[in-house]
Prior knowledge:
Layout: E1 13-21, E2 29-38, E3 43-45, E4 58-60, E5 78-82, E6 92-95, E7 100-109, E8 113-118, E9 121-122, E10 128-132, E11 136-141, E12 150-158, E13 161-172, E14 179-187, E15 190-196, E16 208-215, E17 221-228, E18 232-235, E19 243-252, E20 255-256, E21 267-268, E22 278-283, E23 291-296, E24 299-300, E25 307-312, E26 315-320, E27 329-337, E28 340-353, E29 356-360, E30 367-369, E31 374-380
Parallel strand pairs: 6-13
Antiparallel strand pairs: 1-2, 3-4, 5-7, 7-11, 8-9, 8-12, 10-11, 12-13, 14-15, 15-18, 16-17, 16-19, 19-20, 19-21, 22-26, 22-31, 23-24, 23-27, 25-26, 27-28, 28-29, 30-31
Amino acid sequence: MGPPPQGPDDKALQLMKIFLWSPASGWPSMEAVTAPEVAPGSTLKVKEASPADADLPQASPQRGAGSPTPQLLPPIEEHPKIWLPRALRQTYIRKAGDTVNLLIPFQGKPKPRAIWTHDGCALDTSRVSVRNGDHDSILFIREAQRADSGRYQLSVQLGRLEATATIDILVIERPGPPQSIKLVDFWGSSAALEWTPPQDTGNAALLGYTVQKADTKSGLWFTVQERCHRTSCTVSNLIVGNSYAFRVFAENQCGLSETAPITADLAHIQKAVIGYDTQLFCCVRASPKPKIIWLKNKMDIQGNPKYRALTHLGICSLEIRKPGPFDGGIYTCKAVNPLGEASVDCRVDVKVYDNSIQYQVLKAMLKMTCSLLLCAFQYKL
């Protein structure tokens, strides 16, 4: 290669970029393109070309006179590739405040360039730090926040060759409290509640709701239902004569909400008074529609004017008109259809204290589940 051509004013030279391509068969072909002006004394670097090679011949300015010296750059010995750990191939979930420390191994020779992006933008270096080694890259977040959630992409570049890997990170925290909880109704030893979902789910799907009750005498809270998936609930087995308040927590992977709204109204579970009618309730679900039979001490009481049995939308009720001491016993609700039958019992004891009659359900209402029916026995005063 001869000395570079001199310009008319002998103050600058034109650099010619020469490309040599060697096809699989045939003779190599050459192309020449004129580059912008460069200072005299520049050195021409020529590297071994291959179809996968991305770097073009370039000139690097150097001070001082001298003829161009060819330089052979190291070839690509190993194409870039990322080895994404199996655990990071699905959404990586962390709790708010936890540390995120991801080590992603890769290959490439000579040493490739590793670049991280967050949702297509450059990383916020005030929150996220990166350390790139010869064979791996580490993404580190000391205290993760919900704003750190998103899609992170690692790009390993070697010339024009590139390998990419995508990691979805989700930072979650406890949900907010449910809203608008209210006591819809109460009857017998049961109460019906309704509420609306929380505004903030904590960046995660809700697992359900936890319902608690507290009587005004003790003021202690007890859980009556966990992982309730609906925004309504019926609380049973409340003690006669007590008044109850209720509250509801929302729950996700991080746990229960920090606070819970409390019902503004109390459920007053009243005692039966002499001369007042008493009702028993049974919820029945079956297909085909079953026939409902009420029994007292295993004796059919249908047609007895002392009792009135009703069924509406799967809720069966038995009204005991003006109960007396002899109305105590085991009451049974039986549902029968062509596929089988199911029943549930409730024991009612009637006692006399100081010439007044009080009614107590001494045995807790039973719940029976079978392939045909789902019955939950309750009573109403």
